[in-house]
Amino acid sequence: xxxxxxYFTDIYKGVTSLWTGMKVTGxxxxxxxxxxxxxxxxxxxxxxxxxxxxxxxxxxxxxxNQHKCTGCGxxxxxxxxxxxxxxxxxxxxxxxxxVRAIDKHIxxxxxxxxxxxxxxxxxxxxxxxxxxxxxxxxxxxRLTRVLNRPGSSLKKKEVKS
Amino acid sequence: MILExxxxxxxxxxxxxxxxxVMAPWLVTLTExxxxxxxxxxxxxxxxxxxxxxxxKVCAVxxxxxxxxxxxxxxxxxxxxxxxxxxMKELITIKNADKFLFNxxxxxxxxxxxxxIAALPFAKGLQAIDLNIGIFYVMAVSSLGVVGILxxxxxxxxxxxxxxxxxxxxxxxxxxxxxxLSLLAIVIFSxxxxxxxxxxxxxxxxxxxxxHIPALFAFVLYLIAATAEINRGPFDLAEAESELTxxxxxxxxxxxxxxxxxxxxxxxxxxxxxxxxxxxxxWMPLHIGGWEGFNQIMDYIPSIVWFFGKTxxxxxxxxxxxxxxxxxxxxxxxxxxxxxxxxxNLMNIVLISFVVLIGLYFK
Lengths: 161, 363
Ligand code: SF4
Ligand code: SF4
Known about the structure:
The complex is a heterodimer.
Chain A: H1 2-30, E1 56-58, E2 66-67, H2 74-78, E3 84-92, E4 98-108, H3 117-121, E5 128-130, E6 144-146, E7 153-154
Chain B: H1 9-22, H2 25-62, H3 78-88, H4 99-118, H5 134-155, H6 159-190, H7 195-200, H8 207-210, H9 212-229, H10 241-244, H11 254-279, H12 292-299, H13 303-322, H14 330-357
The structure holds iron/sulfur cluster (2 copies).
The site of one iron/sulfur cluster has 13 residues of chain A, from helix 3.
């Protein structure tokens, strides 16, 4: 007897839970909420990507054309597929000593898998994600980028007073 | 009764007479075969294109999207563009595949759905062939489609295809029983297997109303079992994308793939049309016994509009299922059939026989 009761309560429960689901989708069918479709090429001007969107690796520069990259090469070591090449140079500092500085931070967008390991491991937070995603070009070499701008220099750490 | 101006029999019989006056009887039969064939071919293609478009729009609205909207107004020509693309695709021949069976399979699938569509009464006087065992015939040919699916899976020389085909076989063989038993409910009510007689028997009320609770029950069971029989979500294990890439039609490309795709949508239409014919009165307008004025107003709507209106409501319900429920596992699928649907169906049959025997339904 018990099992018979359980059999029918099972059916009842199943049907009610299915009906709950159908009510939700049915409601959306009759009164769709906010339409999430992006009319992409037309809405280029107003398109706003999500904050966490991974478009490409970029190196932010401030108004004095300064960045935070020291040329330590940690990102290069951590990139699983060799998308980053760091070329350093020696420049004299205030005391006249020769110290290492970044010459070219080369980023191969064509090989990047957007794993974020370089950004996660950079000890100076010098690189981050850019939101641009229209990367189509006619020549593969144009996907190789130098992230530090020409003539840029390392931003000095603010000395705490 | 139904207004005669909406009857297609005047049109069909005038064509018949016109042909008879100019050629020999055997030639007339042949020409009529060809005409019916061409009409069905056109209907089939247009319906397939429309259903694919409809499905994409319905699922888009359910998911708060817009759906196709680029080709033509509201994306109306999207499926036509897709068809042109599919026609131009290369037909890839698979290494070590059984070539003959591989090429045969899509045709088996599509021919069976053609055969089923032939027996459907679309409107008053618009039925290609009115067999006296109509339901039996439709069920028999529509379950032949699984042969095509099994052959496709077997001949592709691919494990995904084979698993998909085996699942499909297990699924159709088991759900066939439930479909048959729930259709039997209406056969008991109307006392006939001929589709035209069944439609006539609903002139004063559809079976779903006249047969009250047991008929409603049979209707729901039929909808569930039929959704499973046509391999549609949530019962689309045969082509479970996430597990089997595309199931039995993984290896097919171009127009051969399109055949499977088209047959699937036409099968959905057939299943909905059978539900309409048996439970919702087919092309019969909504009649309520005794309300003469109301019945007359309903008669002004042509029977073909009634038929397609009701069929598309059922098609919408089937789409609603697909875009609501997650896919079942194979053991859940077989459990649902053998432990729930089949016993309930058998109980329902006994109940209906009892109801009919003591005349507990609206006549
Ligand atoms: S995101 Fe990953 S793959 Fe791309 S450059 Fe950084 S570490 Fe390399
Ligand atoms: S981007 Fe960061 S990790 Fe890479 S070289 Fe510059 S400072 Fe070092």
